[in-house]
Amino acid sequence: MSLISNVLSKLFGGNKYEKDVKAITPIIEQVKAAYAPLSALSNDKLRNKTAEFKSRIAEHLKQIDAEIAALRTEADDPNLLDVDRKDDIYKDIDKLRKDRDKKIEEVLMMILPEAFAVMKETARRFTENDKIISTATAMDRDLSVNHDFVQIEGNNAIYSNEWTAAGVPIKWNMVHYDVQLIGGYVLHSGKISEMATGEGKTLVATLPAYLNALAGEGIHIVTVNNYLARRDAEWNAPIFNFLGLRVDCIDLYQPNSTERRNAYLADITYGTNNEFGFDYLRDNMVRSVEEKVQRKHHFAMVDEVDSVLIDDARTPLIISGPIPKGGDAEVYNQLKPRIHKLIEAQKKVFTQNLNDAKKMIEAGRNKEGGIHLVKAYRSLPKNNALIKLLSEEGVRKLLMDTEGIYIAEHNKRMPEIDQDLYFVIDEKSNSVDLTDKGIELITEGGEDTNFFIIPDVGVQIAEIERKIFDKEEKIAAKDKLMQDFAIKSDRIHSVQQLLKAYTLFEKDVEYVVMDSKVKIVDEQTGRILEGRRYSDGLHQAIEAKENVKVEALTQTYATITLQNYFRMFHKLCGMTGTAETEAGEFWDIYKLDVSAIPTNKPIVRKDLEDYVYKTRKEKYLAVIDRIQQLVKDGRPVLVGTTSVEVSELLSRMLQLKGIKHSVLNAKQHQREAEIVAEAGKAGSVTIATNMAGRGTDIKLGIGVVDAGGLAIIGTERHDSRRVDRQLRGRAGRQGDPGSSEFFVSLEDNLMRLFGSERIAKVMDTMGYKEGEVIQHRMITKSIERAQKKVEENNFGMRKRLLEYDDVMNNQRSLVYQKRNHALSGERLTIDLNNTIFDLCEELVNTHHSAKDFENFTLDVIRYFSMEPEITQRDFENQKPDVITRNLYNNALAYYKRKSQVLLNKVYPLVQDLHASRGETLENVIVPFTDGRKGLNVMVNLTKAIETNGLEVNYSIERMISLIVIDDHWKEHLREMDDLKQSVQGAVYEQKDPLLIYKFEAFEMFKKMLVELNKEIVSFLFKGYVPIRSAEEVRSAVPQKRTDMSQLKETREDAAAATDGTPRTTAQPERKPVEPIRVEKKVGRNDACPCGSGKKYKNCHGKEE
Predict the structure, then answer these.
(1) What is the pLDDT of residues 589-599, one digit of tens each?
(2) Contact by Cβ (8 Å): 21, 182
(3) Reported pTM
(4) Phi-psi bin for 358: left (phi > 0), alpha (psi -120 to 50), beta?
């Protein structure tokens, strides 16, 4: 913070974060006051506080719950036939539910000081006592069967303060500090709590988790990987269990299983961001309510919130299956020879321009040298020879000055530079574009000269309109043009992705090849991102480049980004050590405020200014020298890198020096826990990516504190400041000493692209030679400004991608709402009436303007199987809304008569079955057909009798609605995928792809809804039950779960895409190696541990 900022901050009462803490302090004093008398309570009385809190919450909600219950009773009354009244009731219920959520927040705020105090007192008792004895509850007895931390002796439950978490024995020794109470309050308030590494974020989460779980709405605690989800769930579960709350982790169970459903029904549910998102998608693919696993999205608490809601947020979660049309995955291999030809030609041009630039600069002809330098830079910007030249005195400044001339006035003169190139690379925007010369080179002899040229659709359509007069010929010509446009767009897109793969994506940097598969490396943690693929066909292009199998395209069945999934929650909060730099984005997208929580002990870590060198070689040599010095001092060293390639290079250099070390990168990520455990010992050297080991603490070994603590060495500045802060934060936890320093070169990616102009000028002016270092606070600030540029650029990309997904999200919300109404049957009658009305309105609007009564009549007969009770005179003279209302009333009356006829036919047969076989039959199958298609509808026999047969009609309506919605939505998603890719060609016509996407997506969705309405109405109005006797109504086998065996779950990496993200498929996710989990095993004939006195096989082991 600058001097001026410091003065202003003090003048206005501190900065924003200091004011936040000051405002919370009175609440923390209330917590401490409530905590003081709790030590006098017995264990039973302390545990009973949970029941007391729940009772107070129920009392506060009593009136509004009674109102909701009364409205539900009225809505469920079978005698209520007024659909408009029923619709109003459900709207009132929705409003009351929102009001109820507000009431919950009110009462939780009232009991917060006491609830936080109870959690702190429980933590204290577990810390100070090896055994805690209390009266056994039913939950205690259930837990004792499978867990060792609680034992039953008579009527007593004995809780131990030692148990196993993620295979590692632990002993509870944590009591909440005041700063952790502050962090807990911030989380409960629906904000982000920024807490430094080692400040106990896992413990902080217990406070709002306990408080909010009391309301019974469920708490989701989200982690970045399944190891942390399982570890945190097992670490904290005994504390919550002691207080009467059930804890579970969804990652322990198979998707769509009863066990996973029960995990969601727990008071507190842990899990990974992926699994929460995928479960939401799966829930919207099932065919029965019983198969759904998730409940209301009430409160989500996200650990490492910046990683989940920033880094992973724009990554679409996709469930996909086989594509109907197949998918030409071989197109990339077919185009490879042309790309090789293109790249070889470009290399020759690059070499010539680079050599000319060197000669002219040496001769003092800087103007001509600058032009050749810009040409070389736009040819192959990552070439090592070019990077070396740019590190020389004055060369980078010459490049920037020359480029500035040609990019002025919206790149007005840039074509003069690009005309000699075969393709142009813009590394900053991560894009590659073919030039006319490149297109000419890869167009082979005998091919159409426009083989790689996208037609100007607007001009050619105008030409068709001018030259062709026959209507059918005109339509055929337009169809041929659009087909040509689509084919060429795909072809150009494939060429561009192959060029990206060859020129911008490097093996062992952005990805690795293992087991004959291309696997993306997380740029921050260095872990392999199993199951994730680059989007937009880029992954297939890289597969073709690396000569591994190119995976086929698949069709999207369901998709959502994590951004839109987490925005569905009533309340969202998060915690991390690095959120301040992204505070603006958190607020803009999620309306999440960030509060920085002070540390329990002052940070004494020394953060040194950056060391800046001209070349990477000098930098790496300096890093090795520094490591040697620190090892001699007896300090552990953590060396942060940005890629697998760099970590392996440094490893080889250390081997040559004979320095023992460990490497943690994408190729050794399975040894992470082992390596991190050794990283704090004296003299140890660990090479890791900048955020490796996130979620775990490096604990200092014997003598390390006296030696100066953990030393952090960063070998490159990351694009994002928070990643560097995360690396720094590995040292100096809980008041420990430590240091951090970054070694930077002008050849580093960040410096080369955004940050080195000013620094290069300084080094040139002061006459720095190779091997000399510059270190100053101004230099460090300059680098941080460069990082801000990248962060702004990335934020812009994320916002744009979110705009694409918002279009899909609006459509998805409506479709899933209709689907859930059909699934539960709760509001299906209202939806079907709206469907009938919408179709009536569509038919009237289609034909009324042309006064086409004949086709109007035919369409009514086609979809409603009835003649309209509307005369031609009325049709021509009445207003459309009057005709629509009359047609709707006639259709509704006809459908009611038809339903009653069906009921009169089927209900007696159902009664016979119930009378003769009701004790053994639960469900029956009723066939239903419209003459073309048929389906078997499962009907619950008991419900059918209770509703006098109405359940038969409801089941038919429910089944038809679900099938039709799913089929149309799946086809619509495929078309949306195609649209997202095809609109990218709009940039060649100087149009905004996003605007075109929004317009076309709206029209496509409107068309889909019309077709959906037509099919539902047609099936229901034409359908009948083709049975004559009770023998034809078959008994139903137990309902199978929705088959999802052919579906694949994928996360696409949108980092390489500037806009849309079409679908690809991935292999099933490989489970990471984890510690062996040994659970308590009870023999079938042994006494049940619950204390019932029965044998295990007759008690808790009955179902095994």
Answers:
(1) 888 999 988 88
(2) yes
(3) 0.78
(4) alpha
Q: Structure tokens of 457? A: 């659709």
* Structure tokens that stand for 1056 in this block: 């390489």
- Name the least confident of 273-287, 289-303, 428-442, 808-822: 428-442
Q: What DSSP element (H or E) covers 533?
A: strand 532-534
Half-sphere CA count of 271, side-chain side, radius 13 A: 28
Q: How many CB atoms lie within 10 A of CB 38?
A: 18
Helical residues (DSSP H) of 849-926, grouped into ranges: 853-864, 872-877, 880-917
Q: What are phi and psi of 520, to 5 degrees?
A: -75, 140
HEC assignment per residue over 44-100: HHHHHHHHHHHHHHHHHHHHHHHHHHHHHHHHHCCCCCCHHHHHHHHHHHHHHHHHH
**Encoded tokens for 447:** 């091919």
Q: What's the rounded Cα separation, in Å, for the pair 577 and 605?
A: 15
For residue 576, give the nearest of 586, 563, 589, 588 by alpha carbon.
586
Rounded CA-CA distance 188/200 in Å is: 16
The torsion defined by the Cα of 515, 519, 523 and 528, in degrees rounded to 10, comes to -60
Element (H, E) at 500: helix 471-503
Greatest CA separation for the chain? 105
- Predicted confidence (pLDDT) per residue in 828-847, tens digit: 989 999 999 999 999 999 99
For 776, list phi and psi in degrees, rounded to 5.
-160, 155
Give the Cα separation of 287 and 761 in Å (integer).
66
Q: How far is CA 766 from CA 68, 89, 366, 1099, in A?
A: 76, 78, 21, 83
Is residue 1's pLDDT more than 50?
no
785 vs 91, more confident: 91
